[in-house]
TrEMBL record:
Signal peptide: none
Superkingdom in the source lineage: Eukaryota
Record has RNA-binding as a keyword: no
GO molecular function: ATP binding; ATP hydrolysis activity
Pfam families: ABC_tran (PF00005), ABC_tran_Xtn (PF12848)
Residues in ABC transporter domain copies: 141-360
Keyword Cytoplasm recorded: no
Keywords associated with the record: ATP-binding, Nucleotide-binding, Repeat
Protein name, per record: ABC transporter domain-containing protein
């Protein structure tokens, strides 16, 4: 439910649903949202549902503890089985040991009848990685006295007098309500839009890795992922297996690589977009709502990839946890740009207090 909401709407919905007094079932990739709303977690794994009490954070803690204990018990039982089998094998036909061997065998039979402890099934961890990039002389992107409106008229300016820049060590999150101009600012930085006033300078040789809210729609649905990447980067690899390996690094494996893109889920399409983005070898990542179709595992892997990336980052996201993981600087877009000096948690608390004040004043906080 949070996919296309801004941060203030996410906070409002979280608070509203927390007080909802009827049955509520949520499918979500937002750990922060699940922590704030849910009292129980259902996990679908290997075609089975398992139930856990508590919110998402409590579920992770409890599951980790249980799986650790299960592996200890599994290791202990396997050691007992090993010793019992070794003893039985060593007894041979010695009369004085045959009775003991039979006793050990009965013990093994009872253990099997009762059901042996199974090892914890570990899902293969998805590891995303952006390639190393050369560090260019800063600033990589500089906005000088920039003003912009879609109409070109001063009275409609979303921004005016902007003097900001992006460097290789920038880790910037853009916050603000829907319609405040977050995506517009990214488009100005990427030269998808031209400023009404002022200039936008980009370092010669700069490569921008762009993920937009509509990137999935720009893929060619009748091609397979392998065919699509081959078309985007002709001659990069000679052997088909090399193409498949490159795509596999972003979690597209097996038949997914050869099926038509139209048959892929939105999450897999997003992984294909990230494959294309990485192969371009960017110096700066411009990510506009990259998590909309990613699952939790992929979001965490994306955060790890961003943190190990050597270039700059400009991020637009409604995912509080991702922002907390990767952003060093927070810019609030709302009739201009101001730097938020606190943490993303402080910002969330501010939104919550602001909506509480509006509610007391008789304003519908759902319109924030």
């Amino acid at each position: 439910p949070t996919n296309h909401l801004d941060l203030s709407s996410c906070v409002w919905l979280e608070d509203h649903l927390r007080g909802y007094d009827k049955i509520l079932v949520i499918t979500s990739h937002s750990q922060d949202f699940l922590n704030g709303v849910c009292s129980n977690i259902m996990v679908l794994q290997r075609s089975k549902l398992k139930y856990w009490a508590g919110n998402y954070e409590q579920y992770v803690k409890t599951r980790t503890e249980q799986e650790t204990n299960q592996m200890k018990l599994y290791a202990k039982q396997q050691e007992e089985i090993k010793h019992a089998k070794e003893f039985i094998a060593s007894c041979g036909t010695f009369a004085n040991l045959v009775r003991q061997a039979k006793s050990r065998q009965k013990m093994l039979d009872k253990m099997e009848e009762a059901g042996l402890i199974e090892p914890v099934h570990q899902e293969k961890k998805l590891v995303l990685k952006f390639p190393e990039c050369g560090r260019l002389v800063p600033p990589l992107i500089a906005l000088n006295d920039v003003a912009f409106s879609y109409s070109g008229k001063k009275k409609d300016y979303l921004y005016k007098g902007l003097n900001i820049g992006v460097d290789s060590d920038s880790r910037i999150a853009l916050l603000g309500p829907n319609g405040a101009g977050k995506s517009t600012l990214v488009k100005l930085m990427c030269a998808e839009l031209m400023p009404t006033e002022g200039t936008v300078q980009r370092r010669p040789g700069l490569k921008i890795g762009r993920f937009s809210q509509h990137s999935n729609d720009q893929l060619e649905p009748e091609l397979s992922p392998v065919e699509y990447i081959q078309k985007q980067f002709p001659g990069m690899f000679k052997d088909v297996q090399d193409w498949r390996t490159a795509i596999g690094r972003f979690g597209l494996t097996g038949t997914q690589q050869m099926d038509k893109i139209s048959k892929l889920s939105e999450g897999l399409k997003s992984r294909l977009v990230f494959t294309e983005l990485a192969l371009r070898g960017p110096n700066v990542l411009m990510l506009d709502e990259p998590t909309n179709h990613l699952d939790m595992e992929c979001i965490d892997s994306l955060a790890d990839a961003i943190n190990s990336f050597q270039g700059g980052l400009v991020l637009v996201s409604h995912d509080f946890r991702l922002i907390e993981q990767v952003a060093k600087t927070i810019w609030v877009c709302d009739q201009g740009i101001t730097e938020w000096k606190g943490s993303i948690r402080d910002y969330k608390d501010m939104l919550r207090k602001k909506m509480a004040e509006q509610t007391k004043g008789g304003i519908d906080s759902g319109t924030c």
